Give the backbone structure.
Amino acid sequence: MEWRVTLRREVIRLLKRLPDHVRNRLIALMKDIECFSPIRGDWPNYGQLSNNRYHCNLKKGHPTYVAVWKVADKEIRLVEEVTYAGTHEKASY
């Protein structure tokens, strides 16, 4: 059974402004989450922010781009949404 990933409206708007290589990394992260799980220890600087929130780096250096996502329901395998994708300075954690 696969996980389902959705994007918040703000993230969809941010996607247009992300560099191509960062956007491609976010798409790869979403595919990894869908196929395996939201626990992505194989991604750089992955970490658990709170009980059901996680983050990882999409690109290191300056600026650093991060993704933040939240798991809504582990029973039906729903990742509620990727809540943020953008520079580290504006991250919501």
Notes: The chain has one domain: 4-90. The chain has two helices and five strands. The domain at 4-90 is CATH 3.30.2310.20 (YaeB-like fold). The two ends are 30 Å apart (CA to CA).
